[in-house]
Amino acid sequence: MLTAATTGFITAFSLILAIGAQNAFVLRQGLAKQHVFWLCLLCATSDAILIAAGVLGFSAIVAQFPNLPLYMAWGGAAFLFVYGAMRLWAAYLGEYAMQLSGQSAGLWATLATGAAFTWLNPHVYLDTLGLIGAISTDFPAGPERTAFGIGAVTSSFVFFFGLGYGARLLAPVLQSARSWRILDVIIGVVMWALALKLIS
Q1: Rounded distance, CA 86 to CA 78, Å?
Q2: pLDDT of the residue at 153
Q3: Cα–Cα distance between 62 and 178 in angstroms, integer?
């Protein structure tokens, strides 16, 4: 079960790590020290709901559509390959101007924006219901698959709260073009590795 939990943690963490609008928003709020706890809780809980749906419900869907995992694996692999290529291209270009200044909105406006970044992002459904759900089928139903899901959910909470509260400490590093370039290279390689895992 430890292997399953570790796989779930690493898989979800690698997917969440990809810098996007949601993460940039959490980072911005962390730097501004505005509504950090509630925003991180919202993002992590939303991920937990979607991950649970993917892990628990994917096998039932597969029973009705046996070829679905194959189609999703190839579709997911294509997305991961393209996204990985985009991150590597961004690292090559080295353009990382971050605009994190500005006034902070109220709590409800902040949560509404965070919810929009989460639930209106089509990639989150591919990541949680699709990719994580598909990878979870590598483990037998029961304790091992549950451990995989718990590992994935845990990584979401660790990431968002780490990003939100660690933003001030990371600010000088993340504002360095070299650091962003290294991060994008790592993300690109991880995305390609996940793509190969899906179709192997």
Answers
A1: 12
A2: 93
A3: 44
